[in-house]
Each structure stands twice: as C-alpha cells, then as structure tokens.
Amino acid sequence: MVGLTILKLGGSAVTKKEKPFTPNVNAINRLAGEIRKAKVKPLLIIHGGGSFGHPVAKKYKIKEGYRTPAQALGFSKTHYAMIKLNKLILNSLIRQGIPAVSIQPSACIVTKNGRIKYMEIKPLLNLLEIGFTPILYGDAVIDLAKGFTILSGDQLASSLAVNLNAKRIIFGVDVDGLFTADPKLYPTAKLFKELSLGKLRKLKRNFRKAKVTDVTGGMLGKILELTPAIEKGVPAVIVNAAKPGRVYKALRGEQVTGTIIKAR
Questions:
Q1: 24, 244 in Cβ contact below 8 A?
Q2: Whole-angstrom Cα distance, residue 183 to residue 192?
Q3: pLDDT of 166-221, one tens digit each?
Q4: Which helix (DSSP H) or strand (DSSP E) does residue 57 occupy?
Q5: Model-level pTM?
C-alpha cells in the first residue's frame, strides 16, 4: 500500500513488565496523543504483550507447541490477556478520535514451525484503503506443525511490511535504539545511529563468537526479525517510546534520537 507506515509498540512501552497484567496507562494515553497529533495516514499499529501475554504464555509453554491438554486453557488465557491489553490501547486511540479497529491475528494467521504460513490480509487492506487504523498484536495462534505457538508482534510487523509494501517500520521500545551493549547494564554503551543489514548481521556473529547472549538486552534478536522487510527496502527506525515526543517525531519523519536500519 502506497505510503504505509507500520508502528510497532513493544510490550515494554505499553505495560509495566515487572508487574504482571499491569498496563502503563500514562504511556498508552500519551502515545495515542502523539499518534493523533502526527496525523500519519495510512497507518497500521502492532503492539507486543509485555506483562500481559508473556507471563501466561511462559507458564503454559505455549511457544513450544501442544503437548498436553492442560495447555489448551493456557492458550485461551494467553489470548484473553492480549485481548485485554489490546482493548486498553484501542480505547485510548478511539478517545483521541482515531478510527482504530482491532484485528485478531489468531483469526487470520496460521504458522508452521513458528513462522507465518498463511495470512488473510484482504480485510486489513480494505480497512486501510477506507481510512481506518488497524491495530494488531502478538498472539497465540494455530501452528500446522506444533499445534499452536506464539506469533510475535515483531514477525507480524515484518511480514505485513513485505505483503503490504510498507514505506517504513517504526519500532517503539524502552531504550533509545540499538547499542553496542545493553545500556541498562552498561551506561557507557554507544548508540548506533545508523546500521546496514550487513553490519547488523556482523554484530550478531560477533556476539556468537564471544559466546554471549544478545548483550544489547535482547534488542538485536528482535530487530533481526525485521530482516525480510529491510531486505525489501523497508527501513526500520528504532526509537524510545518511553520518551515523550520520540514516536511523534519518528511518525512525522523528523530528526529523532534512535537507530535507522537500511538494506545497505
């Protein structure tokens, strides 16, 4: 779709991750205000699970797939948790006068071994063409190989960016961008202002050689999920959604503190 912007709001940006089932109401309302003020069309929003979806999914091991009948209830609880968070965000957007419409990923997406195998995007495309702002989220979904699994909002953002020929992806997280190390643990870590996909992959290889987990605080792995979209020429901009005005500036295309990732 011509000029489409995909805004991915991480769970850390819309919930208080240290407190299960606790939304960050102030952040949600502020972000809804920034989205309204930016007046970007067409816009598609995706949000993560944060303290809503993750604790339940982890407890019942939903990502690993179907193993016991008891997990069925866990699947339902995980999905319900995401619906609750989605309703809070949806309500905030509507109160700002944004014609947001929720789309349930588990009703239109099937995965195989954790990767999207099929997605019905026609209703989503029609909503965008009319002028609505669709809002999706990471969800528990049916998987052809595992029975079910967790579909991350990151993979969803990348897949939709490719299928809808998006102009850009804005990634709102709880840090300023991608750093040389986890800035929450290493204050001297340096921010990458711009990266090519090649440099991003090299960074990942260096971490593996050093036999360390993603020292950027898990951010690198999440961003690498966007590789298919970036390869297609869709740039990704990582900004700190916890800092007032950052998402607004990114939506407006203004200069903003963050990391830009391009194919080359």
A1: no
A2: 12
A3: 999 999 998 898 888 778 788 888 999 999 988 888 877 765 554 444 444 567 77
A4: helix 50-60
A5: 0.93
Q: Is the dihedral of CA 215, 25, 160, 43 positive or negative?
A: negative
What digits encode the pLDDT tens for the residues 131-151? 999 999 999 999 999 999 999
Task: Decide: helix, strand or coil at residue 190.
Answer: coil
Q: 3-state class of 249 per DSSP?
A: helix
Average pLDDT, the chain: 92
- Measured distance CA(143)–CA(138) in Å, rounded: 14
Q: Among residues 228, 229, 236, 234, which one has the least CA distance to residue 258?
A: 236
Q: Where are the beta strands (DSSP E) in the chain?
A: 5-9, 43-47, 100-102, 109-112, 115-119, 133-137, 139-143, 147-151, 168-173, 194-196, 236-240, 259-262
Domain ranges of the chain: 5-262
Domain 5-262 sits in CATH 3.40.1160.10: yes
Q: Count how many residues are written for the chain.
A: 264
